[in-house]
């Protein structure tokens, strides 16, 4: 028997409403807790006002929100199926010849649409918000004074403040090191005027200075000077550069492929960016896996009893899957397993487990 359009819309609407309600409640709790933590961090930062902290909490909310959405999908699906079973609506539908797969089709469709909307439409907005949050965090809470930019024209590094302000451009970086090739350094005065320029074949970050090799030093109104080696003082360290480097979360889904190509062209590792991009691609599949698990643990509580026990088992199974996902992603980040396997394995395994559980519980 075919599932009518009216019943499909009814089931899909029930899931979407409960999904939004649970999501709103969890985001409110997350915002409250995160704002309290930000207030604690800003306690000894006079420039971080209460308004700035509230703004930072809002800007960071989408980042945490994307992490809890799979749980929201699971809880929304479990409550929707449990409620429909409790009110006998699912029992009547099953008695009329509708299979569990037909009954789940509207929820799976809504879940796919939610996943694709989050990845393709909302992710660029969330990435921009997170990028703004990191700027405020670096400025008001962490006091970072350096940044690293990677563009098609090469690598850009900037230092402001003491001992000297300057801008570094390099065509490429030697993979696995902090040795820059074909380097240009613009020295800046306090008023922003350029006071000098270095053009070197390479620059290597040492303890407290950049070591320039085969450099020409040019200053306004003076003859250029050739320097076989020159030490340019810096406060930059490898850790500071890595902290200032743009994280994958601050780049939108549509920007990531081009940024990955740029990283690889300049010699920087693109593993975590490729892993993040494929993880975004796998998100809709992971959401559907949560619906399969929700159905397996919540739709048969009337006939078997123990609703709370089944729901608790479903939550425990989801937590176990997410722990395994973190482990697999860590292995992918370290290069132990391929990026594609690390990004897609959690979603694929979750779908297979959910489908197997449904086939077992529903007798095919």
TrEMBL record:
Claim: Transmembrane is one of the keywords in the record: yes
The keyword Cell inner membrane is assigned to this record: no
InterPro entries according to UniProt: LptG, LptG/LptF_permease
Main localisation: membrane
Keywords: Cell membrane, Membrane, Transmembrane, Transmembrane helix
Superkingdom of origin: Bacteria
Compartments where found: Cell membrane
Membrane topology: Multi-pass membrane protein
Segments crossing the lipid bilayer: 15-33, 64-82, 103-126, 280-298, 310-333, 339-361
PANTHER family according to UniProt: LIPOPOLYSACCHARIDE EXPORT SYSTEM PERMEASE PROTEIN LPTG, SLR0882 PROTEIN-RELATED
Protein name as it appears in the record: LPS export ABC transporter permease LptG
Species this chain originates from: Rhodocista pekingensis
């Amino acid at each position: 028997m075919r599932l009518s359009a009216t019943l499909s819309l009814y089931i899909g609407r029930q899931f979407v409403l409960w999904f939004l309600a649970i999501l709103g409640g969890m985001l409110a709790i997350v915002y409250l807790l995160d704002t309290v933590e930000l207030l604690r961090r800003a306690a000894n930062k006079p420039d971080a006002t209460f308004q700035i902290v509230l703004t930072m909490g809002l800007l960071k909310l989408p980042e945490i929100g994307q992490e809890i959405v799979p749980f929201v999908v699971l809880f929304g699906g479990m409550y929707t199926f449990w409620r429909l079973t409790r009110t006998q609506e699912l029992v009547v539908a099953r008695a009329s010849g509708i299979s569990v797969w037909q009954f789940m089709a509207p929820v799976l469709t809504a879940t796919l649409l939610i996943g694709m909307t989050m990845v393709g439409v909302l992710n660029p907005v969330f990435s921009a918000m997170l990028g703004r949050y990191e700027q405020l965090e670096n400025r008001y809470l962490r006091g970072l004074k350096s940044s690293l930019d990677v563009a098609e024209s090469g690598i850009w590094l900037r230092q402001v403040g003491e001992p000297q302000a300057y801008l570094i451009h390099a065509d490429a970086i030697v993979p696995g090191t902090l040795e820059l090739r074909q380097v240009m350094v613009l020295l800046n005065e306090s008023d922003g005027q350029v006071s000098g320029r270095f053009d070197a074949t390479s620059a290597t970050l040492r303890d407290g200075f950049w070591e320039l090799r085969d450099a020409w030093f040019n200053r306004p109104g003076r003859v250029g000077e050739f320097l076989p080696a020159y030490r340019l003082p810096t406060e930059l360290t490898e850790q500071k550069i890595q902290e200032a480097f743009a994280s994958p979360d601050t780049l939108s889904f549509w920007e990531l492929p081009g940024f990955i190509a740029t990283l690889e062209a300049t010699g920087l590792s693109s593993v975590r960016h490729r892993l993040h991009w494929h993880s975004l691609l796998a998100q809709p599949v992971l959401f559907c896996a949560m619906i399969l698990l929700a159905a397996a643990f919540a739709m048969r509580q009337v006939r078997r009893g123990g609703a709370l026990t089944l729901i608790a088992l479903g939550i425990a199974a989801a937590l176990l899957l997410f722990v395994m996902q973190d482990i697999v992603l860590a292995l992918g980040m370290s290069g132990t397993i391929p990026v594609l396997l690390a990004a897609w394995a959690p979603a694929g395994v979750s779908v297979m487990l959910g489908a197997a559980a449904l086939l077992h519980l529903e007798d095919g």
